[in-house]
Amino acid sequence: MVDAKTIHFYDTAADRYDNLTKRGAPDAHLLAFMDLLPEGADVLDLGCGPARASVHMRDAGFHPDPVDASSGMVKLANDAHDIGARLLTFDDLDMVAAYDGVWANFCLLHAPRTDLPRHLAAIATALRPSGVFHIGMKVGEGEDRDHIERKYTYVTVTELRGLLEDAGFTILGIDEGREKGCAGTVDPFVVMRARKP
Questions:
Q1: Domain range spanning residue 80?
Q2: Which of 12, 56, 83, 184 makes an SS bond possible with 26, Cβ 3.0 to 4.6 Å?
Q3: CATH no. for residue 156?
Q4: What is the distance between the alpha carbons of residues 15 and 186, in angstroms, rounded to a whole number?
Q5: Taking 80 as the threshold, does the pLDDT of residue 11 lie above it?
Q6: What is the mean pLDDT of residues 11-36?
Q7: Stated pTM of the model
Q8: pLDDT tens digits, 135-184
Q9: Phi and psi dihedrals of 107, rounded to 5?
Q10: Based on the structure, what is the number of domains in the chain?
Q11: Spatial separation of the C-alpha atoms in residues 21 and 90, rounded to whole Å
């Protein structure tokens, strides 16, 4: 289920968000993910935002499929990068064995907690055998809305590990840290890399 206030923020603040996340080179998390992909991999960039990860993946010889629930972000991505971004919500994810990798970098944190198992199962189905999955989430408990009206589901590291294992994934790597986001707060996060059998 898409949260209207969250999507409204991304539709109306796409340029602001893009400026915050602008980087000249792939970060360590994206490099670690790409290192696990086969040559010429097909990759779903789920919740792509400005699609900067897709640009880096395209430059590295992969075939990204950037999707986002925000029309503002899709327009920004295509205007800036001619990347073929398209509108797609988590609920629309119905591909079967279509990708070698799924990059879900701090997007599923906007899904309700009760929907996370279903979305992770859909991602597993969308991956080919031995497909690689990256997920980034904010660490904490419960659900809340930040002061710029985005809805969040927070997870513990143990909880996220369990969710991935329940969806059939094998955990390959876990990174934890703290980072300043668009709301201006410095929040703890966890990134996990996993593989489908």
A1: 4-195
A2: 56
A3: 3.40.50.150
A4: 21
A5: no
A6: 77
A7: 0.92
A8: 999 999 999 888 777 888 999 999 999 999 999 999 999 999 998 876 67
A9: -115, -40
A10: 1
A11: 22
